[in-house]
Amino acid sequence: MNFYVLTLFPEMIEQGLSTSITGRAMQKGLVSLSAVNIRDYAANKHKKVDDYTYGGGAGMLMQAQPVYDACMAVQSGLEKPARVVYMTPQGSIFTQQKAKELAQEENLIILCGHYEGIDERVLEEVVTDEISIGDYVLTGGELPAMVVIDTVSRLIPGVLGNGVSADTDSFMNGLLEYPQYSRPEVWRDKAVPAVLLSGDHAKVDQWRREQSLKRTKERRPDLYEKYMEEHPEAEKKGKRKG
Ligand code: 9D3
Prior knowledge:
By secondary structure, the protein is of the alpha/beta class.
């Protein structure tokens, strides 16, 4: 899969994704990343890409022309037009479902705004999808773009290590992860739960499942309700005392 990121801060994108699993995916050739500097497409000799907003108000806006030309330069190198995802606080909230959908694409263009945003006219011309990563205010679309690329990349076959599944279809799907432990068996007087040392795999599975349900109910009641609606058989058999 090929990602093309249109941004005023290409080095931020490159550096942010060059290490760890995404970096390895690029080295392996499973994913490519091209960070395109929108400033390179400024038509004026001062390389200016922003201006004041008509109608007044604070802050500067990214102008239509350099954004359009940068986007077209990428599109014209592709066999068929790619989807253009605009990272914006006004977009739909990014979900695992949306990541799965985007992972089916061969090429993806991601547009990052900065300043107060981008001239609406170019957005109307080039953008196919608008995504927000959540209800909080960032300084630009670069971190959100990295979030999308990271999430989509790990769904591409071969990106995760051998035998590690992207786990979105495992039985834990829709539930929070159970707690995990490694050596030593006792740390600062805290022992690893005995069931995990029992060697009884059925019991371990059952314990993990209970822990997942308990955590999800406590921490994400929204997810718990949804899970129970979809898996009515999962309702915990009341553990009777005495
Ligand atoms: C005029 C009002 N501005 C401040 C409230 C709007 C505004 C424009 C641009 C606020 C933040 C930004 C920069 N953020 C993004 O580009 C962004 C973002 C975010 O801030 N939160 C969650 N997801 C995203 S995706 C892109």
